Amino acid sequence: MTLLDAIRGRHVARHAHRLDEAEVDLLVDAWARAAEGAGFVRTVSTVTGPTVIAPRLVHVVLGPPAVLTVRLEPGQTVTDLRALARRLAPHLGARALRVEPLGVGDHARVTLLAADPLADPLPLSPGPGVLIGRGEDGRCLRVEPADLPHLAVQGATRSGKSRWLYSLLGQLAARRDVEVAGVDPSGLTLRPFVDTRHARRQVRGLADLARIEAVLAELVAEMDRRLAAMPARLDVLPLDVGTPLLAVVLEEWPATLRALDATDPKQGKRVRALVARLLAEGHKAGLRVVLVAQRAEATIVGGAERAQCEGRLSFRVDNAESLRLLHPDSDDLAADHATAPAGIALVGWPGRPTFRLRAPYVASYGEYVAAVTRTTLGFA
Ligand SMILES: Nc1ncnc2c1ncn2[C@@H]1O[C@H](COP(=O)(O)OP(=O)(O)O)[C@@H](O)[C@H]1O
Ligand SMILES: [Mg+2]
Question: How many other CB atoms are there within 10 angstroms of residue 181's CB atom?
């Protein structure tokens, strides 16, 4: 290397360094303004009046992706910051933010993402429990079947409700300690279970409306038997192969209710009452309802029943009111969600603020059928 090259090299390095410094300055500045704009600040009173303090950036990696380390102000939490991510992101030049706790929760790591973190399909990978989907933070929501809440699922036609249900049922079918029951007006969702041990408390199609009431009444009777047999020292029934979790799927539930109401409104009422009992008392007896509708309106799921559904998934819905019904805290997310691609849901889950989730992708109906029959036929 000649002396000239060496000088030039040093010059380039110094130049690049200066550019980096300028970029860091821009980010620090953008962060302060974004935090102030979103109200993510601490206000202290001083002699000259209230002063606003935005949490400081203590470290910046330019990336890409750029990663900011934020020292939170007293009283601020990582959860607060996560809730504001959508408001902050555009002002940091990002499509979305990933927010993770650091230290004891007094710092946060904020990654600036250039693309929607939910853009890629999520394969149904094996792991503990059942995979419900993946959040924007990249973490998968997995739960043991016994820890599933009652679920209300809504979404416009072709928003991904059935595919998500296929993924759930395909996984549940593989479990010896789960029985899949329910009512399916088109018959397609429960058809793979025809020759399996699950079929006895399932109704496919709307040809025999009396059987719908009979099967739901049988599920309520089973619930009552379990509640009566509950050991005195327990208030939640332990589940095993002999006492499986009963997943009661009500696919396209409004279609079933319409058929019942049109034929015999009294039967419609009785069926609603049976489902209300499953929702109110089923949880401790090992029954879970999975209610699917285009809109979770009051005529489909009354307020009391909706409140029992602690798990809520809203795929794309065409009106903000339906979204508010299941996720009262979702106003920030509503506008974006109106055009969400198939397979992306807003989720309410016990103990969490509303979050976006990518549902697992079952490539085809055939794959779903294969998943159910592969694991269940042997046990029929
Ligand atoms: N998780 C997903 N990932 C990618 N594409 C999906 C996903 N879920 C659904 N889709 C696409 O959307 C289409 C409609 O989904 P479907 O579950 O039948 O909707 P719905 O039951 O809400 O009418 C599917 O055929 C598929 O092409
Ligand atoms: Mg469907």
Answer: 25
